[in-house]
Write a structure and sequence with these properties.
Helix content: 25-40%
Number of domains: 2
CATH class of the largest domain: Alpha Beta
Largest sheet: 6 strands, antiparallel
Order of helices and strands: HHHEEEHEHEEHHEHEEE
Distance between the termini: 52 Å
Oligomer: single chain
Low-confidence stretches: none
Strand content: 25-35%
Structural class: alpha+beta
CATH topology of the largest domain: Chorismate lyase
Number of helices: 8
Shape: elongated
Mean pLDDT: 87
CATH architecture of the largest domain: 3-Layer(aba) Sandwich
Radius of gyration: 22 Å
Strand order of the largest sheet: 4-5-6-9-8-7
Number of strands: 10
CATH superfamily of the largest domain: Chorismate lyase-like
C-alpha cells in the first residue's frame, strides 16, 4: 500500500478496501478477508485495519458480525411512493425474484385498532395474514395484513407461499383496488423479528402502515410492515408544481 505521507494510513487503507469491496461485489462475494489477512496483504497494523473498517461501517458500506468477520452491505432497494403496487410487483420490476413465507393465516378478533381501520365492529372476526417477504431468497420485511372476514375467507384456501395477494384479490375475488393511505416511521425490531430478518439486520426497521381501498372507497386491507432499514429506502419525487 502506497500513498501520500500526509494521508493517514487508515485512510489509505480505506481507499484500498473500497476498491476491494467493489471487485468482490461484482464477483458476488460478500465476506471480506480476516483482519490478519488484510494486515498481511496491505502491511498495516490491526489498529489501522479496525479504524478503516469502522469508517466503512459507519458509511454503510459493510457490517461486522462478532466472531465471523466483516461483510459487504448490499445496496438498498428504492421504493417509489407514487404508485400503489404490491411487494411482488416491486421486486419483479427490479428483476429480483419475490417470495413469501406464510407465518399465520387465520381468523382473529379485530379489536378496537383494526376495527377502526377496516370499519368493522371490534368484536368482529377478521383475517390475519402474517408473512415474511423475501427477494432473491433474502428476508426483506415482516408483514401483518388484516382483511375483512368476507374478503379474507375468499383467499384462505387459495393463497400460497410466493403468491401475490393483490393479484389474487383482483383476478380471483373481483376486488378492484383504487388507492391507499400510507405512513412511514422508524421502529425497533423485537428479538424474534430480528431473527426472522437475519442476524445481520440492524435493530431498527422502517415501519409502514397502509390502508388500501377499493373503487367504492371501502377498506380492503390494513397492512403493518417492518422493512429492513439496511436493504430498503422509500423514495418520493417532488415537483414545484
Amino acid at each position: 500500500m502506497t500513498g501520500s505521507i500526509k494521508t493517514p494510513k487508515y485512510l489509505q487503507l480505506k481507499g484500498c478496501l473500497q476498491e476491494l469491496i467493489a471487485g468482490m461485489a461484482k464477483d458476488g462475494k460478500d465476506c471480506l478477508p480476516s483482519e490478519r489477512e488484510l494486515g498481511e496483504k496491505y502491511g498495516v497494523s490491526r489498529i489501522t485495519i479496525r479504524r478503516a473498517l469502522e469508517e466503512l461501517e459507519q458509511e454503510g458500506k459493510l457490517y461486522r458480525v462478532h466472531g465471523k468477520g466483516a461483510f459487504i452491505r448490499k445496496e438498498k432497494i428504492p421504493q417509489p411512493l407514487t404508485k400503489l403496487s404490491s411487494f411482488t410487483e416491486d421486486m419483479r420490476r427490479r428483476n429480483m425474484k419475490p417470495d413469501s413465507r406464510i407465518l399465520v393465516l387465520d381468523y382473529i378478533t379485530a379489536g378496537p385498532h383494526i376495527a377502526e381501520k377496516l370499519r368493522v365492529a371490534a368484536d368482529e372476526q377478521v383475517v390475519l395474514l402474517k408473512r415474511l417477504r423475501l427477494a432473491d431468497g433474502e428476508p426483506m420485511a415482516i408483514e401483518n395484513c388484516y382483511l375483512r372476514k368476507e374478503t379474507g375467507s375468499m383467499i384462505m384456501d387459495r393463497l400460497n407461499n410466493g403468491e401475490s395477494l393483490y393479484e389474487l384479490l383482483q383476478n380471483h375475488c373481483g376486488i378492484q383496488l383504487s388507492y391507499a393511505e400510507q405512513t412511514i416511521e422508524v421502529c425497533v425490531l423485537k428479538g424474534w423479528e430480528k431473527k426472522l430478518l437475519g442476524n445481520e439486520s440492524p435493530p431498527y426497521a422502517l415501519f409502514t402502515c397502509r390502508l388500501t381501498y377499493d373503487t367504492n372507497n371501502v377498506p380492503v386491507e390494513y397492512v403493518e410492515s417492518k422493512y429492513r432499514s439496511d436493504r430498503y429506502r422509500f423514495q418520493v419525487d417532488l415537483s414545484i408544481q
